[in-house]
Amino acid sequence: MNKHQKIAVFGGGSWATAIVKMLIENLETVGWYMRNEQTIAHIKENDHNPKYLRSAELDANRLDLSSDINYMVAKYDVLIFAIPSAFLTGELSKLKESLESKTIFSAIKGIVPETGLIVGEHFNREYNIPLTNIGVITGPCHAEEVAMERLSYLTIACQDEDIAKKMAEALQSWYINVKTTDDIIGTEYAAVLKNIYAVAAGIAHGLGYGDNFQSVLMSNAIREMKRFIKKVHKMKRNINNSAYLGDLLVTGYSTFSRNRMFGNMIGKGYTVKSAQHEMSMIAEGYYATKSAYKIKEEKGAKTPIIDAVYNILYDDKDPKKEFKKLTNKLD
Amino acid sequence: MNKHQKIAVFGGGSWATAIVKMLIENLETVGWYMRNEQTIAHIKENDHNPKYLRSAELDANRLDLSSDINYMVAKYDVLIFAIPSAFLTGELSKLKESLESKTIFSAIKGIVPETGLIVGEHFNREYNIPLTNIGVITGPCHAEEVAMERLSYLTIACQDEDIAKKMAEALQSWYINVKTTDDIIGTEYAAVLKNIYAVAAGIAHGLGYGDNFQSVLMSNAIREMKRFIKKVHKMKRNINNSAYLGDLLVTGYSTFSRNRMFGNMIGKGYTVKSAQHEMSMIAEGYYATKSAYKIKEEKGAKTPIIDAVYNILYDDKDPKKEFKKLTNKLD
Question: How far apart are CA B123 and CA B118, in angstroms?
Answer without folding.
Answer: 9
